[in-house]
Write a structure and sequence with these properties.
With 247 residues, this protein is an all-alpha fold. It has one domain. It is 80% helix and 0% strand. The chain is built from 13 helices and no strands. The protein has helices at residues 2-16, 19-45, 55-59, 64-78, 83-88, 90-96, 101-120, 124-132, 138-165, 169-188, 195-204, 206-214, 220-246. Helix 4 (64-78) crosses helix 9, helix 9 packs across helix 10 (169-188) and helix 9 runs antiparallel to helix 12.
């Protein structure tokens, strides 16, 4: 695991010294700031009709404004993990180093999860702002952040897999966008189909995932799904890297 730790630190260092990191972080903060402002304005003007919903519950998966940017930002964050090494030629150095494929992938994946957490950390300010002007259900808020982390665990794993399979960063980003877009679209089937199809779509649904967590309900079905997809994607990424080394 020491090798994985070294890979993770190397990945984070290379990311945060690049302009890409600050472009992504700035764009992300601007987007979330605008979304939070729009939601607070909406709920302030429609306090009666909004019922039990709050700006925070809407912010955490209560509208498409939560999911649309994820389909863009996640591919941008993960496209360079392995595909970037291929493009720059450093993958050959990495493959000849005394580091196992598992350590490389786990290190890269851990770095991706750290990046994901860094994206969301500043949004805690929004909960604090809400607490200064009204009551905040902190249990539901922390549950929402836990749901965000679980969602990110499988998003980043999918992005990592696409980066391991793609020859270039652009292709990796496109593949990640398509894969996550398909999963998002399948989840919408929860509102379209009936019977078994609806249950399957509901199990995959990102909407259902975040709506559950934003209410303070930690649904183990979604936890199992997130963990299963993440483990499968990371395992396949290790296999793809092994095939490249021994191919």
């Amino acid at each position: 695991m020491k090798s994985a730790w070294v890979v993770m630190k190397r990945e984070l260092a290379s990311f945060f010294v690049s302009p890409l990191a600050y472009v992504v972080l700035t764009s992300w903060l601007v987007w979330n700031g605008v979304v939070f402002w729009v939601l607070t304005e909406f709920y302030a003007r429609n306090a009666v009709s909004s019922g039990a919903a709050t700006p925070l519950s809407a912010f955490f998966g209560g509208s498409a404004l939560f999911f649309i940017p994820l389909l863009v930002f996640v591919p941008v964050l993960t496209m360079r993990l392995i595909a970037g090494e291929k493009q720059s030629g450093t993958i050959e150095v990495l493959m000849t180093a005394p580091v196992s494929e598992t350590s490389v992938i786990l290190g890269k994946y851990s770095a991706a999860l750290v990046m994901w957490c860094v994206l969301w950390l500043p949004t805690v300010v929004y909960a604090w702002i809400m607490s200064q002007h009204g009551s905040v259900d902190w249990g539901a808020t922390w549950s929402s952040y836990f749901g965000v982390f679980c969602l990110g665990a499988y998003f980043m794993a999918v992005g990592l897999l696409m980066s391991a399979l793609a020859p270039t960063q652009i292709i990796a980003a496109v593949l990640s966008f398509v894969a996550l877009g398909v999963l998002f679209t399948v989840g919408i089937g929860e509102f379209v189909f009936d019977g078994t199809a609806r249950e399957v779509c509901g199990y995959v649904s990102m909407w259902g995932h975040m709506q559950s967590f934003s209410k303070g309900v930690v649904d183990t079905r979604y936890l199992v799904f997130d963990l299963s997809v993440a483990v499968l994607a990371v395992g396949l990424s290790i296999g793809a890297l092994k095939a490249r080394r021994h191919g």
